[in-house]
Amino acid sequence: MRVLVTGGCGFVGAALADALSQRGGFSVKLIDDLRVGQPGDLDLRGLEYDLLPSGASADWPASGGLSLAVGDIADAGWLRGCADSADVIVHLAGVPGVADSISDPVGNAVENVVGAVKVLEVGRSVGAGLVLCASSGAPVGTQEPPYDEDSTPRPESPYGAAKLAIEGYCSAYHHSFGMRAVALRFSNIYGPGSHRKRSVVARSILAAASGEPIRVTGSGSQTRDFIFVDDVVAALVAMMALPSGQVPALFHVSTGVETQVRQIMETLVGACAAVGWGAQLTSIAANPGEVLRNSADSARIRQLTGWKPEVGLSEGIDATVGWFSRNRDSVL
Predict the structure, then answer these.
(1) CA-based nearest residue to 326, from 276, 261, 287
(2) 22 — phi, psi (to 5°)?
(3) Most buried residue among 33, 286, 310, 320 by CB atoms closer than 10 A?
(4) pLDDT for the residue numbered 227
(5) Nearest C-alpha neighbor of 252 from the set 184, 201, 177
(6) 264-290 b/e (C-beta count within 10 Å ≥ 16 → b)
(7) For the chain, which ranges sit under pLDDT 70?
(8) In the chain, % of residues over pLDDT 90
(9) Which residues are bridge partners to 185 per DSSP?
(10) What pLDDT is attached to residue 216?
């Protein structure tokens, strides 16, 4: 199976590449503009890959191999060359984060929405059998959790609106062109390799590793559905394994467990202490546009694929802090 991964040097992209290379039977091409993720992030995982020459796009590695092409998905011609003959496209590239979308809503829309439409259109033009697009819980907004795919979306930030638009385009390509175009709403992902991610878990671990206090926004009573990166990757692989045929255009990839931010911060403090990093909690003002409660029902993907999250929060935090500790000199 030929799999093209946009944002392939990013947190989830690198983890997916790692998993597919270990499984065998996949020819994986990663593409990235290197504005955030770097080839060194693949090196940290011990991955062997071919770095394609600048501007190269069409070469696929042998089965079980990885290649990396550097470029911008805004270049539709280059993107089409990269995607040619792809069986699956996993679209992970984009600009994350609520705060940046509030400061630059137009730029966020161009990067996220227009980029995703270009990927979908390229997928259609090359006949890819499946296009998976990353979304999040941001389109849902403030609702009584756990919400599901049929809950009415009410985004509260431009980032959430952009993700909702991407979901809409997946649905449109699904119905208009018969494409298997699927949006996956990932819950709050954490885990090894997240050192460039600005999430609450990664940011807090880096603060502790640097001897700085761990900041808790607002009261810390806001809740999130935290999911370990290996479980997200397992969901992506499970979607790839589905037989041909139409599938729903939207799935939640989540644990369904609400955890208060302050609770996970306290868990982090204990895990950091175990590796010799003393950490203190400090409160800062809440972020505008921040959803107060977040938890999603993943029954749809569980029923269709048999996937379920396997890594508990305490186990996942220990594994994540351990990875940061072992790679401290490389990630600080």
Answers:
(1) 276
(2) -75, -30
(3) 320
(4) 98
(5) 184
(6) bbebbbebbeebebebeeeeeeeeebb
(7) 289
(8) 83
(9) 135, 252
(10) 86
Q: Are 66 and 47 in contact (CB under 8 A)?
A: yes
d(CA 15, CA 84): 23
With a CB cutoff of 8 Å and minimum separation 6, the contacts of 46 are none
Are 308 and 245 in contact, with CB atoms under 8 Å apart?
A: no
| 159 in active site | yes
Tell me what pLDDT residue 165 has: 98
Q: How far apart are CA 53 and CA 51, in angstroms?
A: 7
Pairing of strands 181-186, 130-136: parallel
In the chain, the amino acid numbered 285 is A
Q: How confident is the model at residue 24, as a pLDDT? A: 87
Choose the catalytic residue: 147, 159, 173, 190.
Answer: 159
Identify the pLDDT of residue 311: 98
Model pLDDT, residue 279:
83
Instruction: Kindly report the length of the chain.
Output: 332
pLDDT of 254:
97
